[in-house]
Write a structure and sequence with these properties.
single chain; 259 residues; alpha+beta; Phosphoenolpyruvate Carboxykinase, domain 2; Phosphoenolpyruvate Carboxykinase, domain 3; 2 domains; three-stranded antiparallel beta sheet; 7 helices; 14 strands
Length: 259
């Protein structure tokens, strides 16, 4: 039963993440966070022990939390990824088949502080975003997802909180303000009002406009100074998707029946 949150708090600030910051009060538990011995205040910028500093807090510490956390079928589903290549759009609308494909692919990046030995982001694929926990074949879950999307007319978005303006080491992490704006516009239906255009490499549907987000940010290639480098990185990632999916199909031939 989910009764709260277990959030990373490295470089936590009230300005960037006010809900998490304000949730750190009596009843919360800090882990690996250095405390100033004189003031007894948490130093969230200190990563002496690890970058994987955490806070656990009860759900009641979040304003407007729905208690108990039970609802009906969703109108919107958001897949979260962190693209260290810096080539996936920050938000894209998925068709049903694209939703099933990206669900099966489970692409993201391992980030520093999430696993021992990881000091820089590494691209990785985890089937259904949770491969170790699947008791059945992945095709069973992907098929069920497709059926639910059809039945409840659910919109599915892929949100990339990874790198913009270039890959890891060159670009920078997606601005949290923009991610918040994109997610808010997606779940409130605002993005349904605007036109989309397909990404030429990945085929993902990119909104031409999103309130609160600069238009150039929506199209990752526009944020790169070196367009040729972007094209190379995009095709490299696309090839990784292809090779990973071929491996999935070899292990589970019934996946081909879904497409």
């Amino acid at each position: 039963m989910e009764g709260g949150c277990y959030a990373k708090c490295i470089d936590l600030s009230e300005e960037k993440e006010p809900q998490i910051y304000q949730a750190v009060r009596f009843g919360a538990v800090l882990e690996n966070v250095i405390i100033n011995e004189s003031t007894r205040e948490a130093d969230y910028s200190n990563h002496t022990l690890t970058e994987n500093t955490r806070v656990a807090y009860p759900i009641e510490h979040i304003q407007k939390a729905v208690i108990p956390g039970v609802a009906g079928h969703p109108n919107v589903i958001i897949f979260l990824t962190a693209d260290a290549f810096g080539v996936l759009p920050p938000i894209a609308k998925l068709t049903k088949k694209q939703a099933m494909y990206h669900f099966l692919s489970g692409y993201t990046s391992k980030l520093a502080g999430t696993e021992r030995g990881i000091t820089k982001p590494e691209a990785t694929f985890s089937t259904c975003f949770g491969a170790p926990f699947l008791p059945l074949r992945a095709s069973v879950y992907a098929k069920l997802l497709g059926e639910k999307i059809d039945k409840y007319q659910t919109n599915v978005y892929l949100v990339n909180t990874g790198w913009s303006d270039g890959p890891y080491g060159v670009g920078k992490r997606m601005d949290l303000r923009y991610t918040r704006a994109m997610v808010t516009n997606a779940i409130t239906g605002q993005l349904d009002k605007f036109d989309y255009e397909p990404d030429p490499v990945f085929g993902l549907l990119i909104p031409k406009f999103c309130p609160g987000v600069p238009n150039d940010v929506l199209v990752p290639r526009n944020t790169w100074m070196n367009k040729t480098a972007y094209d190379q990185q995009a095709f490299e990632l696309a090839n990784r998707f292809k090779l990973n999916f071929e491996k999935l199909e070899n292990n589970d031939p019934t996946i081909k029946d879904l497409f």
